[in-house]
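Contributing: when you submit paired examples, paste them exactly as shown. First protein:
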Amino acid sequence: VVENERDHILARATSAGLDIEWVLSDPMQSLKTSERQFDFVVSSFPIGMPKQTLLIPDRLGNERTVTDEIGKLALLESSRRLKSSGLGIFIVSRFDASSHENGVYHALSDFGLRLDAFFAMPENSVPSGIAIIRTGEGPGVFVGRFSGDIRRDSILLQNYRAKRPSDEFGLGRIIPPHEFRGWASLEANEKVR
């Protein structure tokens, strides 16, 4: 789902021949009215968008109040439509347990979702990361940092696929979701050790 005509044309042109359907629409409006399920969602929302409050029915049908940036609400809305084997990949700013208790991070489990992994961007890049969202429950949040070194980043991804923590900081740790306070917090704790 893309919001402006120029991006819609570019998206269609760069994915010609692939089985991808691009929709020109306001993402939140499109997600609110769609019943479609997705195998795969990839998105990057502008960081620092205004906050909104939505009432969203959780997996038991109860209305859940969720307040967060519009981009993170779109993350939740699109992830709610993941098939059971689906995968959501989102570039996000801060996305961890230190966020507001009515925010998207704390609401994930109410919708049958979880943060499966968080990959911090390489040092000296923008303070953001890649959040991997899946349905169901898991062993915890796999956390690592991309370095920009192909060999090292390949090891990180192999560890993620195997859900194998590493002794080397940055190549993967598994953290309980309620303890994950972001990459900077993990890095600070590691330096204290």
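Second protein:
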Amino acid sequence: RGITICDRWSSFQNFFSDDIQKHYSREELELAFLKASVVHHASHSLMRYDDVALRLSEYFPYFDELYADLLGVKGCGTLLLKGAFTNRELEMLILITICHSFYFYGAMRKMPYLEQYTQGHAILLNFLLEGEALKKNKRGFKIDFHRAFMAMNQLASIVEYYMALGNRDEAREFLKKFPIRKTFRDFDKYIPK
């Protein structure tokens, strides 16, 4: 089964409050999903350190996948400043990235190889919550896009350290701070089954 926008649309509808949902159409989010895929894959080749896979060993894929997502968003922030990307497009890219989190966690039960993606997105959710970018209300979560962008930039800098200089033991200790099940426990009702 391929990964589709339907998976992300369901997460979007389950997680975000009505006012956020009314502000973005499915068609817009489909385009954002496509852009997120393109910038993710482009980011894999943008910032590659020759010895990173060797240094981080089995933890490399966890950092590599998260870093590609974060660099994609960060790069589009730069495009926004240059006038090549709109604020709305950046907002939708952030929304889709958050929706990826719930897709990966839900799908990991049937596809355990998604753990490396899910772990990275557990870290991302923690940073978004700590940075007060996501706040719960009675009808779902609201998002402060400015805070979300800043939290993602902060996390990108941290992950870049591991990609550039980190070692296996440091990587393991960092990942242990963000257990997948503990992070997603509070979000379980928003995860498409």
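If you have annotations for the second protein, write them as plain sentences, like these:
The two ends are 15 Å apart (CA to CA).
The mean pLDDT is 90.
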